[in-house]
Amino acid sequence: SSGDHGFEIEISDMENMPEDQEIYLRDNLTGDYFDLRNGQPYSFISAQGMFNDRLEIVFQSESTTLGTDEATAKENYVYYDRDENRLYAKQLNGDVTRFTLYNIRGQSIMELQDVDGTAL
After folding, report:
1. Cα 65 from chain centroid?
2. Distance CA 43, CA 34 (A)
3. What is the DSSP letter of 22?
4. Are 117 and 92 in contact (CB under 8 A)?
């Protein structure tokens, strides 16, 4: 058939995901972020055709996406030593009020609060 059609997307079941993990559906056409954990379906209308890049699952809302305001990347150096099974943060300028490590999916996997810069 032709014309516009309505669709709904919602989470019906979830496995291996922390309860406090934010999960959003980002509509790249409208720029909207929809909280998939709110128990309501995301409803939208789409024209006929294939739109492979319209929707994405993301783990941060637009208001919490990563930025460079908190630290300057060229001044800090973070690395993982596999032999020692340790994460190092070098060249920090003083104490750290919040240190958050994200995986490639944008999920927060470690967060430290009020850390002495020499302890990292």
Report:
1. 7
2. 10
3. -
4. yes
CB 67 within 8 Å of CB 60: no
d(CA 95, CA 115): 6
How far apart CA 55 and CA 18 sit, in angstroms, is: 22
Q: Where are the domains of the chain?
A: 5-61, 73-115
* Average pLDDT for runs of 10 along the chain of length 120: 83 84 90 91 90 89 60 60 80 74 82 75
Looking at residue 25, its pLDDT comes to 92
Going by the DSSP 8-state scheme, the letter that residue 82 receives in this structure is T
**Of 57, 60, 55, which is closest to residue 27 (Cα–Cα)?**
55
Whether residue 117 contacts residue 94, with contact meaning beta carbons closer than 8 Å, is answered with yes
Q: Is 75 helix (H, G, I), strand (E, B) or coil?
A: helix
Q: Supply 106's token pair.
A: 């944008």
Query: Among the residues of the chain, which ranges form H helices?
Result: none
Q: Closest Cα partner for 97 from 75, 115, 71?
A: 115
pLDDT of residue 26: 92
3-state secondary structure of 63: helix
